[in-house]
């Protein structure tokens, strides 16, 4: 009996097969990389550990092993690199020493990331009205799952930002509800399964000024008063144009927020119209109003 105990006491941990790694997991580390990590505890066997043999394969049965590694004792993570993108890989690891190796710890299939799609180009915006604009671009990607278009009220896209997601293969977006006379900046990117493209070039455009409306000519004592409704909040001036039979020409440039102009009668009927002007695109013209021919105006 004493001899048996003596033999057991003399038994070294180097004679024991180590316990298997625990908490083994693998995740995608990018388009060409799989990252794996694990824990290992000496456990009740008190076995000596020499390192961790690891394998990666393209099938769960590990009949097509494409990589092996022997990982040092103190390491608890390893990255497989140089892999194909959007491909499922299977990884496993075990603990070993001079006596033998533990069972394999196996991770479920892990798929490497899909590369980001190519970025759109030729991003362009055309103002189509007071509150509308159309953004268009060239689709250079074949793997996008959609696009994100953005507009903002500054070039750094930190103010007034609005983002809209549109479907794959889309090459234009109609913006509505914009503010007259306001300048907007626009960009677009392609969205991917795992990563998005870079942003396209940035284009900017100012919305057209709102046109004056309700132009009228009212007879006053000795003159006619033209009046209209000011619908713009961003005009610098109003231009008043008239036509006495030879075509419209500029009659007067008036300050912002002006809504009336007094004129006398001439030898022929005079047709008047007005528009808002400024740093943003000029408005369309208002409706017209006619001052009849006469000698100076009504008495």
Task: Give an overview in words.
The protein is mostly beta strands and 299 residues long. It has 3 domains: 2-111, Sandwich (Immunoglobulin-like), CATH 2.60.40; 121-206, Immunoglobulins (Immunoglobulin-like), CATH 2.60.40.10; 213-291, Immunoglobulins (Immunoglobulin-like, Sandwich). Helices cover 3% and strands 43% of the residues. The chain is built from 1 helix and 22 strands. It has one helix at 2-10; strands at residues 22-30, 33-39, 52-57, 65-71, 77-80, 88-93, 105-106, 110-111, 121-127, 133-138, 146-152, 162-167, 172-175, 183-191, 203-206, 213-219, 224-229, 237-243, 249-255, 260-263, 270-277, 289-291. The strands form 6 sheets. Strands 3, 4, 6, 7 and 8 form a 5-stranded antiparallel sheet that branches. Strands 12-11-14-15 form a 4-stranded antiparallel sheet, with no helix packed on it. It has a 4-stranded antiparallel sheet with strand order 19-18-21-22, with no helix packed on it. A hairpin with a 2-residue loop joins strand 1 (22-30) and strand 2. The longest helix is centred in the N-terminal third of the chain and has 9 residues, at 2-10. The termini are far apart. Mean pLDDT is 91; it is low at 1-13.
The CATH topology name of the largest domain reads Immunoglobulin-like
**Total beta-strand segments:** 22
Q: Give a short account of the largest sheet.
A: 5 strands, antiparallel
State the order of secondary-structure elements, H for helix, E for strand.
Answer: HEEEEEEEEEEEEEEEEEEEEEE
What would you report as the Rg, rounded to the nearest angstrom?
39 Å
What global shape is seen? rod-shaped
SS element count, helices: 1
CATH C-level name of the largest domain:
Mainly Beta
Provide the helix percentage.
under 10%
Would you identify the CATH architecture of the largest domain? Sandwich
- Alpha-beta content class: mainly beta
Query: Could you state the CATH homologous superfamily of the largest domain?
Result: Immunoglobulins
User: Could you tell me how far the N terminus lies from the C terminus, measured between alpha carbons in angstroms?
Assistant: 141 Å
Compute the number of structural domains. 3
Poorly predicted sequence stretches spanning 5 or more consecutive residues: 1-13
The pLDDT mean sits at: 91
Strand content: 35-45%
